[in-house]
Amino acid sequence: MTVLVTGATGHTGRHVVRGLLDAGADVRVLVRDVAKAPADVEVVQGDIADLTKAAQGVDAVYLLWPSFDSEGIERALKPLEGKKIVYLSAMSADHGGVWGDVEKAVEKVTDDWTFLRVTGLATNTLGWMDQVNNGVVRGPYGQAKRSLVHERDVADMAVEALLENHSKQVYLVTGPEALTQAAQVKIIGDALGKPAVWEEQPIAEAKTQLSQQMGAEFATSALGYWASLVAEPEPVSLDVAQVTGHPARPFEEWAGEHFS
Ligand SMILES: NC(=O)c1ccc[n+]([C@@H]2O[C@H](COP(=O)([O-])OP(=O)(O)OC[C@H]3O[C@@H](n4cnc5c(N)ncnc54)[C@H](OP(=O)(O)O)[C@@H]3O)[C@@H](O)[C@H]2O)c1
């Protein structure tokens, strides 16, 4: 079986590659910069917008769509017609947005799809690195509770879905508990051996900052979502345990690996 891995240099993709190789699959990666490609795989250089060459002859694809908008998705997915697609989606896909659009586009090109809907990746908190080192992380909604998931759990789910039959399954992929952002900062500080605390950032300031990073529309929706998580935490799902056979890795474990 030959599997194409997109995003192979990224947080989840690099573990997907490793898991597939360990399972004896042939792996092809699509990378923009061949110098960054992982070892022991076939490498195709290119952009996700044109999968024609990368998709030739592969049976299955680990797909992520590394953009905050879905423009061009239908054209991009055309070469994946009829192939198995395991797509790294988001819990919010039911409400449309980029992840909903990509899921719909995937369903148009194949019947053999699996959607891994993540609440949030623990790697999002890597953006706090400098602030944690200075002892204070500033952001909106410190009491928002998130069930952030370790990227290796996402990859374990993906490898299982790519190699076995999980056709038309929608999995909710989460960590084992929902933690406030303030608690996450404390855990990261403990892992680093440097105490760190959360400092609440005024919403208007956060909105300006986020709009610059991800566009105004996405920033507004992200802020609304985080606000909602103060009253109603992100769910915790058992899908990682059920699909992979091991429980989801705790945030403490993730922080110990990335911040120590
Ligand atoms: N963050 C969250 O909480 C969250 C929640 C739900 C879903 N997601 C999904 O997760 C995805 C990120 O997954 P990740 O963390 O594994 O990846 P990541 O670490 O963010 O890395 C992105 C990967 O995509 C590649 N890439 C970026 N633009 C590309 C392009 N135009 N053509 C080809 N490759 C391109 C990058 O390659 P280079 O090395 O060339 O940069 C890299 O391998 C997001 O796109 C999002 O849709 C994230």
Tags for this entry?
alpha/beta; about 260 residues; two-stranded parallel sheet; Rossmann fold; binds NADP nicotinamide-adenine-dinucleotide phosphate; 7-stranded parallel β-sheet; 11 helices
Give a written overview of the molecule.
- With 260 residues, the protein is α/β, with parallel strands linked by helices.
- It contains 11 helices and 11 strands.
- The strands form 3 sheets. Strands 3-2-1-4-5-6-9 form a 7-stranded parallel sheet, sandwiched between helices. Strands 7-11 form a two-stranded parallel ribbon.
- The protein is globular, with a radius of gyration of 18 Å.
- It starts with a strand and ends with a helix.
- The structure holds NADP nicotinamide-adenine-dinucleotide phosphate (NAP).
- NADP nicotinamide-adenine-dinucleotide phosphate binds next to helix 1 and strand 5.
